[in-house]
Amino acid sequence: MDAVIELWTALPVVIQIMIKIVTIMLPLMILVAYYTYAERKIIGYMQVRMGPNRVGFFGMRLWGLGQPIADAVKLMFKEIVVPNGANKLLFLIAPMLSIGPALAAWAVFPFNAGLVLADVNAGLLYILAMTSLGVYGVIIAGWASNSKYAFLGAMRSAAQIVSYEIAMGFALVGVLVAAGSLNLGDIVAAQQGSVFHWFWLPLMPLFLIYFISGVAETNRAPFDVAEGESEIVAGFHVEYSGMTFAVFFLAEYANMILISALSALMFLGGWLSPLPEAWVDGVFLLDHGFHWLLIKTFFFMFLFLWFRATFPRYRYDQIMRLGWKVFIPITIVWIVVVAVMKVTAMPWWFS
After folding, report:
1. How far apart are CA 281 and CA 278, in angstroms?
2. What is the pLDDT of residues 44-53, one digit of tens each?
3. For a disulfide at 259, which of 40, 209, 214, 269, Cβ 3.0-4.6 Å?
4. C-alpha distances in Å from residue 333, one per residue of 211, 251, 326
5. What's the start-to-end Cα distance of the chain, in Å?
6. pLDDT in tens, 159-202
7. What sign does the dihedral 68-145-163-126 (CA atoms) show?
8. pTM for this model (two decimals)
C-alpha cells in the first residue's frame, strides 16, 4: 500500500518531466526534418538549381515545404528488408543506438539561464559520454548486416569517429580549464561581457578543431569517405532500407544540430548577447536570451551545408593524418597554453 501511495505522489513529477521531454524533442525532430529540406534548397541555390519546389499545399508548393513530410510518409511505407544470415535483433537495434545518444544529450543542454531539463554539475562529462556512444550503432550495423562491404564501411567509419572524438574531447578539456566548471550553464556564465569575452578568442585553435572534428565525426563532407559516391556501396548502412535507413539518416542530422548548438554554447557565449552588458540590459531582442543561441546555432548549421557544397572529399589517409598528427598535438599544446593563461589571470578573459 505504501508503494502505491509513493507512486501516486511521484506521478505529477513524472508527468512534468515527460512534458518537458516532449517540449524539447518535438521541435527538435521537426528541425531535423526541415534541416534536410534546407540542405537541398541551400545547396541547390549554390549550384544554381531550384531544389525542392513541387510538394506542398497552397503557397507551400512553390517552395516545396511539404518535401520532408512526403519523404517521411514514403519511408514509412517502404519495406524493411533484413539480409539473409543477419542478426535481426542487432540489425534493428543499431539505428536506435545511433539516434538515441544524439537525442539524450539534450537532457543537460541549457537553452537559457535556468532553462534546462537536468541541471547536472557534470553536464560536460555527460555530453562527452553520450556523443561517444554513437560509434556503437555504426559498428553493430556493419557487423549485424552479414555483409563484407557493410563491415568494411563500419570499420572505416568507426576508426574515423574514434580518432576525431579524441580531438573533440581535448578541445572540451580546454573549455573546462577556461571555465573552471563542468556545468554547461556555468561555462556560458564564464563568458559574460561581450563578444570579446567569449571563449572563441582565447581558445581559437580548440574552437576550430572542435567544429572541424564535429564535421568529421558526423561523417559529413569533406570527411564522408565511408558513404562517398566514388565508393562501391554506401558504407555501414548499405543493407538498410525503409525507416531503419531513415533513422540513420535522421541521426546524422540530429548530430549535426547537436554539434552546432554545443559549438555556440562552448565558444560563442550560448544565449549571451554579443553587445556589451551596458548596452543590452533590458533592451528587447538585444538582451541575452534564447534567440541569440538560436542564431548562433543556425550559423553553424549553415556551415555544415556550405562545406558540403564547396570542399572536395579527402582521401582516407589524409583524414586520419589530420586527426592524429595535427589536431591532437595542437589541442594538447593549447590546453597547456590555456592553463598558463588561467593561472596568470591573463586579461581580460581570465582575470
Report:
1. 6
2. 999 888 888 8
3. 214
4. 18, 33, 11
5. 58
6. 899 899 999 999 999 999 999 899 999 999 999 888 888 999 89
7. positive
8. 0.92
